[in-house]
Amino acid sequence: MTPSGSQPPRLLVKTLAVTFITVALLLVAVFVVVTVNVRDQVRQSVAASLESGQRIYAAVENRRQRELQSQAATLAENPTLKATIDTYAAEASTASPARLQLWLTTIDNELEKVAARVDSDALILADTHQATLAAAGRLGDRWPRGRPIALGGARAGETLDGVVRASGMLFRVVSVPLQLGDIPIGTLYLATNLDQRYAQELQSLANAQTAIVSDGLVVASTLPRQAASEFEASAASRQLDGTAQLDGESYAFRRLVQLGGTSFYALGSIDESSRSATRSAMRTLALIATGGLAIALVASFLLARMLSGPVGRLSASLAEAGRSPAGRVQLPLSGSSRELDTLTQTFNALMTSVANAEAQTQAAYTGSIRALATALDARDPYTAGHSERVSVLSVAIARALNLPPEDLEVIRLGALLHDIGKIGVPDAVLLKTGALSESEFDIIKQHPGAGARILRSVPFLVPHIPIVELHHERPDGRGYPHGLRGDEIPMHARIVHVADAYDAITSKRAYRNARPSGEALREIWRFAGTEFHAEVVGALATALPGVTSDTGELIVDAAEQLHA
Amino acid sequence: MLRRFTLGVCFAASTIAAGAQAPEPGTIAGHIKLTARVRAPLPANAYPSRSIGKHEAPATPEISNVVVYLKDPPFKGPLPVSRVELHQQNETFVPHVLAITRGSTVDFPNDDPFFHNVFSLSSAASFNLGRYPRGKSKQETFRKAGLVKVFCDIHSHMSASILVLDHPYFAIPNADGNYEIRNVPPGQYTIIGWHERVGERSAPVRVDAGRTVTMDLTVPVEDVP
Questions:
Q1: Would you say residue A108 lies in a domain?
Q2: What's the total number of domains in chain B?
Q3: How far apart are the CA of A194 and the nearest CA of chain B, in angstroms?
Q4: Pair (A423, A309) in one structural domain
Q5: Number of domains composing chain A
Q6: Burial of B115 per CB tally in 10 Å (0-12, 13-18, 19+)
Q7: What is the pTM of this model?
Q8: Candidate from A9-13, A515-519, B118-122 with smallest mean pLDDT
Q9: Is B123 close to A94, i.e. CB distance below 8 A?
């Protein structure tokens, strides 16, 4: 595998991510829709509540005004008050100042008594010309004598009530006619100051925030200061109903009543009302979302496992197959999906053909090497079949030493090629029957190195190089080309060294006859520990009787020698 | 709202030659016409008038609430006095308007089966006769000229007006609206038509000896049938 970093994500993670993100997006979309929906419904319900608040307010306020009126009318049926008013009106221009003052004091006194029993900010008495005659009550001093009363709203005499501005204050007034029998002698006005307290009362009646707007100015309001001034500035304060954005909050508003230039508004904050609804919706959604996400997580994990499991197993099998090059790997069918099975089958077919091709290549190689070795052996009639025999014997020895099968294969080919370096030895030296000179022996000594160089150029033969290069090394260090000692010499080379010596002794040479196997064995035993490794020589002794049929000659030879 | 009271005055006829000494007195006569509704409808009110008891509209026609008199005429000699009754019937003072000479006495008999009271806060006469039951009567002599408004302190809707004058030259029109002021010394006068809801309206009038001056008045006051 390549190092992580540039590595693509695992299939499991990818599948998980895709499923999870889909579910998450779905939930977000649902959440947005629900939130918008909740806001919309809250807007409607706020508007509806304002509307019902308006109706309730209108009914309650109307009744309250009527009750005020009737209460005041009852209290105004005061003979002294009425007699004084009528007498004053008849003689206003003729009576003495003292007398006028007496009447006015009487009127004031009687009016105070009425005012004390009416729940009103001011009680104002107007004459038949609608001029203030007297005023009483908490804010009675706002109504100076003689001041005309102009009702804002419909024509006086046709409205139950109206709005009057007096001394910088705005009053809502209800009128009660004063009559002597059927003769009108004046009007009694009950004034309620449109102040903050009134706005508060209105708020509790209308069950909403309130604003009183007179001639474009907010005179009293339960709204926050900023929102109130924004409401004043906006066109909303001139409409019947609607919604307005005030101080960053969305309000639904509705006019409760309009009296002349003065309007009473009820306002409800949609945002504030929707907050709790939205919060509960959010809580429910959060619960659903958590559950949904958990289910999605589990489901996507299972799905991912289902999808990626077989692929992962296949991938692991492939990796396994990749590690055993020669093996004829056949992957089992997972049965999880048709595509994966097809993939497995294709891979298996591919692997079969690859294995076949590899076997053919191996066979071709082996054949060529064998041919090469045979050709080499053929240069000297006395060494014909030498390489083949050494190979067979080496494998037998290795088997006796319980070496693993891979080593046997390496030894088989390596032994076959052990003398390949002799290609570079001239015939004059190689085929010389007499004793070799120093320099001639030096040439002979070069053949393991030459063989190693030849093999190095073929990657396929690299594992056999130690056999070729070191098959003339001796445990006592007197071998060539490197003079290695004991354990420094690889096992393969030791085996081939022994097998090579055995075959040389048991073969006929120009300068001597072939010697029997037993003698050869004895000869080799003599040098065990010095020229040969002792355990290999032991293995040779063990292996010799069991050499297979294709070395029949050898067996016969060995048997002969032993019997002799 | 009360309509403005207009007194249309026209002199239909005039003058006889003035006598030298002790001139023969003349007469002013005319017709009062009520033209508009002054008994104003109640201002819009969800509630009826808060009068107590079921009393009918006053029996007195509206025309009887008008007093026609001369303004400050010279009068020599003792002023004739009279004694008149102002009844309390069905929670109403009857008649509603009375004109008398200074020094006259008014009796206030109670005809209703319950207590009544008579009082006044006016400059010309401030008095309170107290409360008294049916059949009893109390009296008051008016010694000062002027308008005296009379009320009942038990029934706040009751009122009456007594016009006390320094001379006998006044009249209250009859049911047909005709009036007559007799024995007026010849001369130039200001004649006044007075109605309690609109106050005084005046016009000049010349009276010649032995003649009758006809003066018709149109008053924007209408009687309710």
A1: yes
A2: 2
A3: 23
A4: no
A5: 2
A6: middle
A7: 0.57
A8: A9-13
A9: yes
